Amino acid sequence: MGIPFLSHGPPFDKILSDNADISLKGKNVLVTGGTSGIGAAILILFAKHGANVYVAGRRADAGEKVLQEARQAAADVKEPDPDQVFEFHSFDASVISNCIAFSERLEKIFKEKGGLHFLVMTQGGMGNGERKETPDGHEWFLAVHDISRYIIAAKLMPVLKQSGEGTVLDLLSAGVWNRVDEHNLELNGVRPDFYHVASRDGPVHEVMTLEFNERCPEVRYHHLFPGAIKTSLTDNNKVDIITRLFFSIGMILFGVTPEHYAEVVFHIGTTWIRDPDHPEWRTWNEKGDITTMKPYPQRPEVRTTIWSYLENAAGFAI
Q1: Has residue 205 got a pLDDT over 80?
Q2: Is pTM, for the whole model, over 0.85?
Q3: How far, in Å, are 47, 54, 126, 224, 291 from residue 272 at the CA level?
Q4: Which terminus, N or C, of the chain has the lesser number of Cβ atoms within 10 Å?
């Protein structure tokens, strides 16, 4: 986890300057969990830069609301694209069959539209200690944060490759927490509170970053840690009072708006456009600087155990 006042990164003015002239006209971007918070801000920014935007979430009303904002942002530029696409697609990240059907439906759409250029995954929430099981029998946060992202990224790899410019931006906890028990990803006997969920998410997503980049080198799979973002995350997830207080103080002292962080995400996602000699994947802190992956998720036995679990849970391998 990056500590905001100790983390480094490009000056924000430089990020804004670098982003300003980038046109994504004709490029396709899918944002999962993009109907509110960070995901919505990212979707709107990509729309502003001319991309065809596809937002996925549970609620059609929230999806239409963010698409209206995206249309307005796109209309406010100097040369709006009359053919720009704005679409909402419904899916439930907690249900494996739904994630698979959603991903296969979107794969067909993007196959006819020249491929998928950007996949941004933001779905999920903050561990609140409340144990819920999905219809498939998985711990809820594991299903939404981890299994669903494996499914979506794996199923959409063909169209990410098809675009010739495929980039995955996976936003979730960085892999610098305490070691998770890779043999107990379901957190059996453990409360799925903020600490334990984030401790699991970090190594799981570092393993996903390593494996996807090794298995699918034509696509850049980035793992991003958002840091302290001023959203209603703790209010929406029934988080305990201590964690809520901790994050509230953090937001006041170090937090940035979703719109601010969206510029960082856009900057990372378009690195290959500005610097084609350095297109390889990275792990990133909340300021947009490269981080060093911890040794634990790189251990062969840890990688194998976590990756095999994701394959078995999803019911397929890439």
Answers
A1: yes
A2: yes
A3: 19, 22, 31, 16, 18
A4: C
